[in-house]
Amino acid sequence: MDIPKPSKAELKRLKYLQRRMSRQDRVNEVRGGKIASKRRQRTLTEFNTLQGHIVRRRNDWIEKTTTRLARENSLVVMEDLDVQTMTRRPKPKLDPNKPGQYLHNGAEAKAGLDRSILSNCWGRISKRLQDKMGANGGRLAIVPAAYTSQACHKCGHVAKENRESQAVFKCVECGYRANADINAAKNILGRALIQTGGGTA
After folding, report:
1. Are residues 127 and 148 in the same domain?
2. What's residue 53's pLDDT?
3. Rounded to whole angstroms, how far apart are CA atoms 28 and 161?
4. Are residues 55 and 83 part of one domain?
5. Domain count of the chain?
6. In the listed set 112, 138, 164, which residue is the last one of a domain according to the structure?
7. Global pTM value
8. Ramachandran bin of 19, using left for φ above 0, alpha for ψ from -120 to 50, beta for the remaining angles
9. Residue 7, φ and ψ in degrees, nearest 5
């Protein structure tokens, strides 16, 4: 149940249109024009049309998915994720051995992750779920995200070492083993049930 992403062809076309607009702006600037050319306006119209199609498809998915979740569940749980902090640009790191030069800080890879996080529209999904759960007599619970992926659902032990890999969770304390996402989901649900007075997961 993943939010629809732009296709490779759509992304390629968007980048091409952006480059074309940039070239048209430079040509217009050289010619001393203050008003964008008709070609530039056509390029912008095509870009906005394609971008609008992508946004409408994504919003349609959000509306349909949140409606189904609200109708089929009395309780839906989400982590309280700080998107702004998660997508903050990494700070540049000066190379102590080479004055004036910087160490690799993973900014390029982080930029890709940031785009992926932002494209999932967690804030909008949360807002629409909040509205629809209330309208259907249900409840949306937002729980703290800290250590949900490192805590053992079985014994509660928290350690970075519990994450044997990205996909596998193995508790170094009690030996409990599970899919990492399932273990985290159980922790999130457990926090929500305690928060709402519904017992334990």
Report:
1. no
2. 96
3. 58
4. no
5. 3
6. 138
7. 0.72
8. alpha
9. -70, 165
